[in-house]
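Hi, here's the filled form for the chain we discussed.

Project: internal
Contact: R.S.
Residues: 411
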Amino acid sequence: MGYSGDEFDVIVVGAGVMGSSTAYQLAKRGNRTLLLEQFDFLHHRGSSHGESRTIRATYPEDYYFSLVTESYRLWEQAQAEIGFRVYFKARHLDIGPADAKSLLAVIDSCRNNAVPHQVLNRQQVAERFSGRIDIPDDWIGVSCELGGVIKPTKAVSMFQMLALKNGALLRDNIKVVNIAKDGDRGVTVTASTGEKFRGRKCVVTAGAWMRNLVKTVSGIELPIQPLETNVCYWRIKEGHEGKYAIGSDFPTFASYGQPYIYGTPSLEYPGLIKAAVHGGYQCDPDKRPWGPGLVPDALKEWIEQRFKGLVDSSQPAATQLCVYSMTPDEDFVIDFLGGEFGKDVVVGGGFSGHGFKMSPAVGRVLADLVLTGEAEGVELKHFRIARFEENPRGNIKDYEDQVGQLLKSRL
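And the returned structure, exactly as it came back:
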């Protein structure tokens, strides 16, 4: 399937989850769409591979709520179209010190957006989750039904298959080295092989390579720092495996404070539970150390204490490496590139280790922006490039116990 000739309505550069979701949105609306990927499709060198990502509606920032709630609906819609599941429902539990500003902001956001939730003390957490999770006396938990697990590689494949089904042309092993304005015709996208592609519009979703490509194309240096992160899986002790498995009412979880720890029920690896630190080491995406990543003692202690000794905390049973594209404020970059490109080139990047869950809605927004110049249903001022001109740290937030710390420390 595809088109004759080399002119397209929209060229999407980068076929991770954001680019693949965008290509699907564009193609299903009848646009001649080209999706380009510099490596093999479904490669493991970026941020869109692996076996699980959490999805939750509880954020300290109100402006993510509409993206998350729309994404829940779009995940269901896309998997109904493809015929297999990538989204598995579960509860979500946020825990942390009762005075943690970021956790208190989560509660405020839940109230502001009418998200059903319960604020629990230590005893109530133990009762709600049948003694599988223990928190200190001065901590609280926030339990919410809007949680779940996404299968990442499977999800990217789903979007690519749906894009192909709707007529998009998909090309991998095409490294884009330049994007140039082509008069009134739109843009010309040039590959390292010299091959050129013409499109009326272009969307750039280059992940960890976004900063270098955008600087080459426009001279703008986006403050997006690639981090290599180590995802850990821990062995559940014999006889307790079912207690922490998906479908057992065990939640996805996030622990606020330092370090910020997140995880999922046992799903992809039977008998192993995912629990990892949100953060990593600065890296060049083309010259990565490829581990082995360090496992902080604080994570081992957290495993031992929170799971009451029912999970082996001595060392991870398995690890996987992934890359974050981190902005100083951990908020996304979704904007027009501007300059000579005007609204012909749209960029989506800096998803900072928490964007995957929102990829269906982000794909819709990027498609809307490149086609019509605006996107309904979401406030984009927090994601504009100009915020870094006004303040190098980006969006100002009134809590510092979590946000803004990840680039100051190395695991």
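Let me know if anything looks off before we file it.
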